Amino acid sequence: MLELFEVITHQKAEQHCRIKLIEIPGSSSFGQISLNLFPDFTLCYLMAPKKLQGLVAATITPMTQNGEINLSVIGQYVDYLVNEQGVKNVFVNGTTGEGLSLSVQERKQLAEEWVAKGKDKLDHIIIHVGALSLPESKGLAKHAAEIRADGIAVIAPSFFKQVNKNGLVAFLRDVASEAPDIPFYYYHIPPLTGIKICVEELLDGMKEQIPTFQGVKFSDKDLLDFGRCVKKNNQGQLVLLYGVDEQLLSALIMGADGAVGSTYNYLGRASNLLLEVFSNGDNILAQKYQFSIQEFLGFVIAQGFGVPQTKAVMTLVSGIPMGPPRLPLLSASEEFTAKVKDRLESVKNCPYS
């Protein structure tokens, strides 16, 4: 999950030697690995984090029929994302994962299982640690750092709507301070939180208050605000990930580094093709891929599309049982599942592939 940043050599190496790699415990983002060759020679690698970009699957929380989290299928889930969808980044315990409907203990168990099963298979495992309670959010952040997740994300606490920029940044700062060695991402989703502070406004001074601040999961259709964020990020120091799947191409054209979304669980391969042709400069073909994806999403949105329906679609496509959502959400109807099956085939058999 790390890439080489700088090499420093000390003393002279023998011509022939055996190399032993020792990882020094500590930060998963900024750490050091020492190659001990002989007593008189040490090669130290200073490591920098691999940039989070491309597709990030907002993971679903599998549950049993009686509503308990089902950890037993996480390993299968990881393999499915990597091998079948070509997606190697995950965003755990977010909206799609019903994070705010889970207990703190359940969220920790899920985080641990994703980190354990994703080790050496996934590039980035981002754990959402946002909560209405500051102590709970801080505790989840500390836990994510302890299990060596690749980053944390925090949604705006949303019960009290009279939140201003200073109050929100103070909340985010306190949570991020519990995980001082891993990247921090702000999770912006005003349609659900009702907190409509523009991200472009938040970016002013955020890095100074939160040194680990690395970027934003921008889950809003306000492309004006998003565009201003891209312009403000002209040095590329932050990662800007777009979170409205049906508008992916628009965000890419404006300068998004990648995207976080629920549909990348089962439309990851098609969305990766869109990314590939876009990066090759073929905007016309990228547009055709986006239209194909939009045709499916437009259909399911018209049927009423949320977490229950996402679970039904993922179960249908992957064969991995996602189970029901947690109350007060109710399972998708059998009628919905039957209708969506043929539409999925049209995306899978997209003529542009």
Strand order of the largest sheet: 5-6-7-8-9-10-11-12
Structural class: alpha/beta
Unreliable segments (pLDDT under 50, ≥5 consecutive)?
1-47
Output mean pLDDT.
87
| Total helical elements | 13
**Distance separating the two termini:** 30 Å
Shape: globular
Kindly state the percentage of residues in helix: 25-40%
- What is the beta-strand fraction? 15-25%
Radius of gyration equals: 21 Å
Summed up, what is this model?
The chain has 353 residues and is of the alpha/beta class. The chain has helices at 74-85, 104-118, 134-146, 165-176, 190-193, 199-202, 206-209, 223-232, 248-254, 268-279, 283-303, 307-318, 334-348; strands at 2-10, 20-23, 32-38, 41-49, 54-58, 89-92, 124-128, 151-155, 184-188, 213-218, 239-242, 258-261.
What does this entry look like structurally?
By secondary structure, the protein is α/β, with parallel strands linked by helices. Helix content is 40%, strand content 19%. The chain is built from 13 helices and twelve strands. The strands form two sheets. It has an eight-stranded parallel beta barrel with strand order 5-6-7-8-9-10-11-12, surrounded by six helices. Helix 3 links the parallel strand 7 and strand 8. The longest helix is centred in the last third of the chain and has 21 residues. 39% of the residues are buried.
